[in-house]
Amino acid sequence: MSWTTSAPLSDIFQKYVNDGWFARCDRRVCLFSQNTPGFLAEHDFWSDEQLDRNEIYRDFFRPHGLGWSASTGLAMPTRDNIVFTLERDFQRGPFESEKISLLNELRPHLARAGLIAARLGLKSAQDASSTLTALGLPALALDEDGVVVEANALMQDLSEHIHWRAQGRIALNDQVANQQLWAALPTLENLTQSHARSFVMRAQTHRAALVAHLVPIKRSASDYFGRSYALLVATPVTAGRAPPVEILRSLFDLTPSEARVARGLATGDSLDDIADSGGVSRNTVRTQLQRVMDKIGCTRQAEVTALLSSVTVSVTTTATMPTATIATATKTTSGTTQ
Predict the structure, then answer these.
(1) pLDDT tens digit string along 93-120?
(2) Is residue 173 within 8 Å of 159, Cβ to Cβ?
(3) What sign for the dihedral angle of Cα 175, 180, 183, 184?
(4) Phi–psi pair at 82, nearest 5 degrees
(5) Residues 56-99 pLDDT 10s
(6) Who is most buried in 64, 123, 171, 262, counting CB within 10 A?
């Protein structure tokens, strides 16, 4: 396990891990057991009476002035399991629903950042080249004009998917993915804009081969990525059984309802079947399907079905890849991440 935390909780979290409280805490088990991934608070799992009896809360969190949290578990395509947690002072009370909603809007961006952090083991590399190599996934760094600043060997070898052009520029051979890349690049400064920042890259057989994630480079990351503006990281996929809902959410930024529709199509369900199982109308499912097509880059339902049925995770085991990463972002005074 690797972890990091903001300064106010550094000493407390050190005790939480080293004194065995983390190993006994079932909060993360509850997070990963949910069929509707998102940020969750204590009352999503326990009543007040159960919290009063919970030894982790009674004997550790509350004596340290804590006891309320907003947390989410991310099962990444690389099989890294990541938890983001915001801890709040006990006297302030539970996280409000509107704060949870705001965190859920940030969740896809946290998933992409968490994927990179997990692959790097949360350790800073010396420079852009060594960082991209340490990722163990095809990756490159782009400047604001889309010029490649640095690329690792895994990305350079993807000639089937990437066309290297003059003056350090690239084009994705999948035209739909290429359009999504260049549409998303100018929007990275505004995380609320709706352009897809995770999108599929098809092989010549039109089957899903890679999922590209476009991640902005900000703050301390600029120290070793220099003049780079964004990372483009590719997650390989292979043919196989329909992927779990959480994998679909991580890959394509889908909402829980959109992921349910997508997985239903991947397993061969009709729109009526999906509507019946979800207790919603067929028109609702069609609306959700349209949003799925917009995010994945498809224009027909049949294409969505064929594409998603080809997606499972291709895992490369490396000596440096952590099996679990706990990233704890906290701000006890305002309940917001920095």
Answers:
(1) 999 999 998 998 888 888 888 877 777 7
(2) no
(3) negative
(4) -125, 140
(5) 999 999 999 999 999 998 877 666 788 899 999 999 999 999 99
(6) 262
Which tens digits make up the pLDDT trace of 133-179?
878 889 888 888 888 888 888 898 888 899 988 888 899 998 888 99
CA distance 92 to 265: 44
Task: State if pTM tops 0.85.
Answer: no
Return d(Cα 316, Cα 318) in angstroms, integer: 6
Can you read off the two tokens belonging to residue 323? Answer: 């099996």
3-class SS letters over the chain = CEEECCHHHHHHHHHHHHCCHHHHCCHHHHHHCCCCCCCEEHHHCCCHHHHHHCHHHHHHHHHHCCCEEEEEEEECCCCCEEEEEEEECHHHCCCCHHHHHHHHHHHHHHHHHHHHHHHHCCCCCCCHHHHHHHHCCCEEEECCCCCEEEECHHHHCCCCCEEECHHHCEEECCHHHHHHHHHHHHHCCCCCCCCCCEEEEECCCCCEEEEEEEEECCHHHHHHHCCCCEEEEEEEEECCCCCCHHHHHHHHCCCHHHHHHHHHHHCCCCHHHHHHHHCCCHHHHHHHHHHHHHHHCCCCHHHHHHHHCCCEECCCCCCCCCCEEEEECCCCCCCCCC
- The candidate with the shortest Cα–Cα distance to 46, out of 67, 66, 62, 65, is 67
Q: CA-to-CA distance for 299 and 301, rounded, in angstroms?
A: 7
